[in-house]
Each structure stands twice: as C-alpha cells, then as structure tokens.
Write a structure and sequence with these properties.
2 copies of one chain form a homodimer. With 228 residues, chain A is α/β, with parallel strands linked by helices. Chain A contains 8 helices and 9 strands. The first copy, chain A, has helices at 13-24, 36-50, 61-66, 77-87, 123-131, 146-149, 166-177, 193-210, and strands at residues 5-8, 29-33, 56-60, 70-73, 96-99, 136-139, 158-163, 183-186, 216-220. Chain A is globular and about 40 Å long.
C-alpha cells in the first residue's frame, strides 16, 4: 500500500479513529467530508496527535476519492447511497472501496441495537450495486470500536473481511493489521458482510448492557495467529 | 440446577456434545428423540464415555420434556416448528426452553453458510410464539462447535444468551459455564437471537475457508472475566 487511502465521510468517530491509526502506521491518508474545510480541520487535529511525519490531509469527498486507489467508506447508513451516487464519477476504475457501513435502525429513527434489512442483503452489496463494475467492494471494519481506535492501546478485535476479490481482500487485511492488536479474518464473499454488519448491532447491545464502549469480537478455533 | 435437563432432538452432534459435557459436569440429562430407543442408545454411548456417576437417560421427546423444568432444543430448523407443536402439551408451565436452533438455508436445500429470514425475526422468537405463554424461551448455544463439544479439551468460545427473563438467563448462563472454557455473555433480549443465530452461518464459512471444524467467537472489551 504505497498510495494514499481516502476515508470518505471520515470526520465521524470511526473515520477519525481509522485515520489516526493508519497515519501512525506511516500510511498516507486523505480525510474526505462533504465539507472540505471541515475535513482539513479534522486532518490537522489528527496530524497534531500523530506528530511529525504524519501524512494526512483533508478534502471534499469527491476530491479525496479522485486521489486514492483505496477508499474507505465510514458514513452513517442514511448517507451511504446518496454519497455513492455523487461519488460514482470520481471513483477510479480498478480502485478498491472498503465499506464499513452498518445499516443500524437508528438511521431511520430506530434503536441502535437493531439493524435494518437491506434489499441487496448487505449494505456493502448495496454499495457494490451503486458503484458499478470496475470498482471492487470489500466489507470490513464494521466491528471495531471507535472508542478504542481513538486511543493508544492495542485494539483487541478481529476485522472480518468479506469480498469476492482476493487482491482486494489482501489490501483490506493488510490495512486492518496495520492497527496494533487487530487481526484480519477471511470472511468469505461480499454477501457475508450482511452477517458481519449485523454483529455491530449486537456489540451495541453489549456496550449498553455492560456499560462500556469497547465491545468487539474475536474468532476462535482458526489456524491463524491468535489475536493480541 | 438440581433437576434434569432434557435435550430435545438430542441425538444429533450438537445435542450429544452438550449432553456429554453436562453429564461430565454432574448434571442429570435426558436425551430426547422422536425415536425413544434411539435416544436410549445415544444415552448409553455417552454414559460409557463419561464413566461412573453419569446420570443420563434417553426417552421420546415428549416424555423427556415432561420430566424436565429446563429443555434445550437442538433440532435442525426444518424440524423445529413441527416438534414444538407436538411438544406443546408436554412443556410444563414455568419451564425454560433454551433454543439453539439456527435457520440455516441448508434446511431448505440451500447453502449452510447462508441463513433464512424467519418471519418472527429469530428462530427462537418463532419458538416463543409456538410454545405460548408460560414457557420462557432463551436463545443460546448457537455458536458452539459440536466438534469441540465431543472432545475433552476446553471449549474456546462464548455463549451469547438472549432472553427477556433474568432468571432464565441465569439458568442458561450457568449451564453454559458448566462446560470448561465457555463463558456466558448477556446478549440482551430474545429478539437479539436473530443476530446470534446468523453468526453460525459465518462460522460455517470460516470452517470451510480455514479447513477446520472449530470456529467460534469470543466477545472482547467486556468487564467480565476473559474467556479461557
């Protein structure tokens, strides 16, 4: 991963957290936002947190997208489809779009512990439909606590990576494992993202019931290195 | 938990595995099956595995059910509704029914990595509708590898317990933690079982992709004792 990563809708807690961790890992990051100057402000905040050497800038979403071969989508579900329609001309053919969107019922005024049914199956499959061929979609980073990402400690969870493309899976998995503590797990096809997305609803239930902001998952019984 | 546990549809891999582990823990277990003599044979097999002191018998499902205040349902989804209609008169008022059913698409000839939509939301909610009031339903034990249960080693996974009743949650959680290695996690309301049920589809994907039979989950970031 030599090129920059664009984090679209990256001024929210999830986007900021990923940006911080990737910038710390030496990755070049472009924060995208509907409002370019807001994106620049957030980039500057993160720059200060990371210190010298951080390569992080901010731009309006389409501009961010046009400068990256790998984009990560971290918008609330209610903003997903509209943003993708707008971004379609800016997404480069051959690029990878990693979708972390969770169709929480909160998007339509429901409870954050509940998840909406998406016609295509997964929110990430809706994304694949909207961006069209030429852009490879990956579902990943749904289950990572934004609260843990914004800190300094290792992040104790797995990132389950769902996609139909082996190269895109490798790119997303490598990005996941740039964050200390995180282990990437091969979750199979993009369609499986529907299950991974729903797990976030369960994690929100656990956060509420156990009064924390740190609930996550680890898969066990796999013949790959255990998580941290 | 002084009384016996009935494991309905208990001659399959999941039922046998739970029976073995609970019998080892000193619990009295009644294996239930459509065919009472088959249940008795399986009970005898498990008896021999556990050795002296094991309290495990077999009976036809309704008879098993009539002798227990806690029943565990481990039938394939395609057998769930029919069995429950048949058992309704035998289920005691005030009893607890722990449902481990997963609505795998394999039930209707589809892939085991895919899950069916259930009208009520979760298979466990369908159960609650079918047994009617007076019987408390819990969704649990969906994500425990039958392959690990049948062995001797600690089982490296959490059991997420979903129910609307605090006492029933305690009963199911205590049963889960009688199995070495397993940790019970409070998964909130019964309706959340729909997410936990679906996780099993993902675990089957992981088993296939990683060529194992042992995939499981642990929740992280919770202020309770970590798993084994």
């Amino acid at each position: 991963m030599s090129g920059p990563i664009a984090i679209l809708g990256g001024t929210g807690p999830q986007g900021r957290g990923l940006a911080l961790r990737w910038a710390r890992a030496g990755q070049t990051v472009i924060i995208g936002s509907r409002d370019g100057s807001r994106a620049q402000n957030v980039a500057q905040e993160i720059n200060q947190k990371v210190g010298s050497g951080a390569q992080i800038t901010g731009a309006e979403n389409s501009a961010a997208c046009a400068h990256a071969n790998v984009c990560v989508l971290t918008v609330p579900f209610e903003a997903q489809a509209e943003l993708l329609k707008q971004l379609k001309p800016a997404l480069k053919p051959g690029s990878i779009l990693i979708d972390a969107t969770v169709p929480l019922a909160a998007s339509v005024g429901g409870r954050p512990t509940r998840v909406l049914g998406v016609w295509q199956g997964a929110a990430a499959q809706q994304t694949a439909e909207l961006v069209g061929k030429g852009v490879t979609v990956v579902g990943a980073f749904h289950n990572v606590s934004a609260e843990l990402l914004k800190g300094d400690a290792e992040v104790d969870c797995d990132v389950i990576v769902c996609t139909d493309d082996d190269n895109a899976r490798k790119v997303a998995s490598d990005l996941a494992e740039k964050i200390p503590g995180i282990r990437a797990v091969d979750g199979g096809k993009l369609e499986n993202a529907r299950i991974v997305e729903q797990i976030t609803g369960l994690l929100i239930t656990l956060n509420i019931r156990y009064k924390v902001h740190s609930a996550g998952i680890r898969m066990t019984g796999l013949p790959i290195r255990p998580g941290a």
